[in-house]
Each structure stands twice: as C-alpha cells, then as structure tokens.
Design brief:
85 residues; alpha+beta; 5-stranded antiparallel beta sheet; 2 helices; 5 strands; 19% helix; elongated
C-alpha cells in the first residue's frame, strides 16, 4: 500500500520535523489539527501555531520500499488555520 509522506515545518527554527506517514491528506490534516489544539504548556505547536505548517513530500510503498518524492515539498495548511477558538 502506498502511504503519503508528511512533515511539519517550523518557520521560526527554519527546519522540518521528522517525517511521518499517513494514508491520506485528510488523515494528516486531522492529526495535525488535533496536535495544534492539544492544550499542553509543553506543546510548542499549540503555543505558537503561527510558526508551523504541514507539508506533503510524496509517497512510500510498503510493498516495494520505494519512495516517490515530489521535486519540492507541497504546503497543505498552516497550523494557525486549524486553531479551534
């Protein structure tokens, strides 16, 4: 099965966090939104949602082990757009 490769970019630190795999963009966006809204004083994404973005990189096939990556990451959503007030 092909899974999609995602990563969160920290605009303040100017780096990508460790990549993670999900089945769909919707699943990744929901998971990212859950983290954005998880109130915890140690949750930097919740504390500073204006600094984080979700990106898609391509796919990984768990049968062949091959990655198919885009030429450049594709931004999906800003954390601040997912904040539930």
């Amino acid at each position: 099965m092909k899974r999609i490769v995602f990563s969160v970019y920290d605009r303040r630190a100017e780096l990508f966090m460790a990549p993670f795999l999900m089945v769909s963009q919707g699943q990744a966006t929901r998971s990212f939104g859950d983290e954005v809204n998880r109130a915890d004083r140690e949750n930097v994404v919740h504390q500073h949602p204006e600094d984080f973005e979700l990106f898609e990189f391509g796919t990984w096939d768990d049968v062949t082990g091959r990655y198919e990556l885009f030429g450049a990451p594709r931004r999906l959503v800003l954390a601040s757009d997912l904040v539930v007030r």
